[in-house]
Amino acid sequence: MAENGGSKAKDVFKYRKGYHKRSPRACDECRLRKIKCDGARPCKPCAVSQNTCSYESGRKPRQTPTERIRVLENRLRSVRTSLESLKAQHPPDQTADVDKILRTVDLSMPPPSDNESSSDDDDPDSSRLNSMMGSSGRSFAHGPWQTSFYGSYSGCSFVLRTLELFRKPPDTVAAMDGTRQVITDLYEAPIPDIESYTPAESRTLPSQPMALDLLGVVFTRNSLLVQFLHEANFRDMVYRLYNESAVQFSASGQTFMPLFHAVMALGLLSDIQCRRQDGCEYAVSEATKHFLLARKGLDVSQCADLISLQTLLCLIIFLISTSRITAAHAYLGVASSSATRLGLHKKVEEGISLSQAQRDTRTRVFLSLLQLDLYVSLVLDIPGFINLDDIDTEIIGKLQPSTTGKLPYPFDITAESRAQFSASAKHLELLVLAATGVHNAFYQSLRGPEKTRKELDFTSVDVKTLRDVEHKFRQWTKGLSGLPAFPEDPETSANMKFELEMTFYFGQLVMYQPFLHYLVPMARGSPTTKTQSEHALACMKIAGTTISRTDVMYQRGLLCPASWNTIYTLFLAVSSLLFLIATHPGTSRPSNAWKKGERGITLLAAMRCVDNGAVKCLLNIKVGPKPILGAFWSTWPCSFPTNS
């Protein structure tokens, strides 16, 4: 009886509710997907999903996919070396089988190399990479006489190319036009009309303390791009505006009012405290009001002085910050024309009566104009207005970052001014590097015989040219150590460093995104060379780093919804990760890309404000390859989280 009772108790324990026999091991696929594995070879989940079922020993940490690829490459090279050694030991008429194995096993693998450089350079076919962006660009017709063009390597072209690779084309023309409208709205947001603001509101000026606070916000948030403004002189003009009579001030300050309104627009747009207290809608509305007043007070056809040119630059920064890149490009044309007519690109002749302060302002204005011209041309991938070859060498020398802590002119002698100017010059150097890199790597290869239709979709890129550009990027990062110390204000210093970082990531993403199509054969297990996988995975690494650094700034409370450079670079990073996820349809692989992509989308959602760039970037992401990323979207809420 006792034995029967004990046996019955064991049976009850064995078949209690929720009980299952736990497998001592799980395959790599089930471990990655966090599902139950029965430990068979192959296990049932892998057999159903037709995935490769493999097991690791468990004695060491699981390797990353990149590490596993490298191990397989090394093993294949070792096998190839052994086969070639075996082939050399026998007469040629006895090695037919060995030759067949070599062609089958290692058709696309490069020979082994003793150093870290890619060994693909020995093969003429492997010394070039295919760019998926093509060479024709994208044109959109908005009417019988109106078209808009985006270059082959613009963000707009990248999003459209991704949709072509992973999403079925829309069934109707209206659906296609709707998708294109969402994508181009990131760059072509409409400008509001001044008639939408009442005259009473238009005559209202902020109080003097508020105006001075907004001026400080401009120099804190946009310090890299507003070197053309001298803060001390501008504050003096603000004091005069509020403390002198209208008759006294109008005599010398008539041209100052458009510049004042333009700077106030930038301050209201970048003031995080104002957004938190009064709301995003109020801040953007007030900023737009000042922008329209500045534009109304400026005669664009008569920008023949530095103050008018400074006002134009402020308007351009405002347009970029509010996702009006194409409008900013039009204003840049006027500003570039004005700058060349003022002779800012040439050395001032002897005998011209210009003070040292005026010469300094000319240099700073030209510096900011070049920064904006190069950045907008990179975003849209269209030629810039100012040819760098037409600038005098002396002017180029003044635009170089200072490595000795001294400026080439003694107008500003404060450490803060030296650091800010050197950081802006370093920013310009990076933009020049990115622009010339894109031109040399992707457009120089297009010169030559006429391309076929197939070659227009995938253009060939010289690997050696890419290596040279990568080397210059590394040299630029090493040069950061020689810059003067950043300002003592920690917030200004953090913003300057972060903007430099984001511009660096932006340039690298533009360089590496054209090679993301190599992720498709890698995901399918098809053979790819080391050079191909390196450039595709490099984009993934940069995208992950971009999201991580942005997350750090978010945790510190320093992200600003008006920073279009940050928003756009973050959008490119998320788009790159979604490209990787789309190459693994129906699974949660690769898990790290999922986590980073989700965090990037959360950061974009946290930077939303009315209808700013973050909102438009999220809409661009939503029109992505949803049929393939169905599992991703099913885990994401329909409404994005609100600002914290």
Automatic annotation (TrEMBL):
Gene Ontology biological-process entries: DNA-templated transcription; positive regulation of transcription by RNA polymerase II
Alphabetically list the UniProt keywords.
Answer: DNA-binding, Metal-binding, Nucleus, Transcription, Transcription regulation, Zinc
One GO molecular function term? sequence-specific DNA binding
Asked whether the keyword Ligase is assigned, the reply is: no
Task: For the region Disordered, give the residue spans.
Answer: 106-137
* InterPro entries linked: Stress_Response_Reg, XnlR_reg_dom, Zn2-C6_fun-type_DNA-bd_sf, Zn2Cys6_DnaBD
Name of the protein = Zn(2)-C6 fungal-type domain-containing protein
**The species this protein was found in:** Exophiala xenobiotica
